Amino acid sequence: MSVQPLRTKLPYRLNQSRSFVDAKVKWVRDPYLDFVVEREKDLAQALSFKNHILSDPCKSLPLSLVSLLKPKLHLPIPSSRFFHNHPSFFSVFHPSPSLPPRVRLTHRALSLHHQESAAFASLHDDAVRRLSRLLMLAGGGRLPLRLIQRLRWDLGLPHDFAASLLSDFPDYFNVCEVRNPSDGKSELAMEIVSWRKDLAVSELERRMRSSPSDSKWIAFPMRLPRGFDLGKKVKDWVERWQLLPYISPYENGFHLSPGSDQAEKWTVAVIHELLWLTVSKKTERENLLLLGEWLGFGSRMFKKALVHHPGIFYVSNKIRTQTVVLREAYRKDFLLEKHPLMAMRYRYIHLLNQMPRLNNKPNIAI
């Protein structure tokens, strides 16, 4: 089944002028949002190890085999030390004196895994909506599987999303081939079967519709950290920029001049919606830039939008990468709308950071 044309071109032409002031917008550290990123530093790797361990029939893996996963998981320390640092989560044991050591999960980690599996099962419809909206943000309604895989963790998709969602929701998704614009080679992609008008509503539009106000004007919420002060010229520009018409990220704004303020507001709307689709309201900057390239923005437009609007986006330099956080989603380090999967992840973090009491028996997993 072919996908019907997506993102109807806007019938009106907006002001194409560019008025951003020639002033540098400084980066100011936000310790609360840095902590938001830093507290998850070992989480993704731990859960990836968990999934590999549980995929083995013995529910354990030899340390020699686990060490081969280290480069794939971008682990900065040896895997044996990683397990040693988290004894409440992983248990290293010797099956017998003559056999090499293996690693398995503790009882408490295994219990959390079962709870997480139940949460994923109850959130299938939510995952379908998130993935559908992501695909509808793409001009052709399709994205390479490699890009979706990069965003899988942030979108809260199951690790086997391609197999499970395709088989369970054939009316929503299909696998196709696309051509990589960088090298011209074909690659597998996922596409949305048909446009879902009820889902093509951005978070900011949804808020406007639910608001009792009659105003049609949509501005981006801005939160600046203490000690941050925009220069007067920049502040005046931001105020004028906020008054520009809001163009939905699900509409086609590529007819706008790439250097115009209006084009930048549409670009910000796309990034805002992308971040809102994630369960933690953040993702690595590299993910956004790669997605921007595929969507047709190029990395330059996304980079400029992130730099020009520190009141909307925060770029953290913690845990050996750059992470873009949607400021409005947090009050200090508290996530205002906690997705059920985030509640599970916080429980995993709590367990990872726990040390067994000395007078307790060692954790032994089944």
TrEMBL record:
InterPro entries: PORR_domain, PORR_fam. Residues 28-354 form the PORR domain. GO terms for molecular function: RNA binding. Pfam families: PORR (PF11955). It comes from the Eukaryota. This is PORR domain-containing protein.
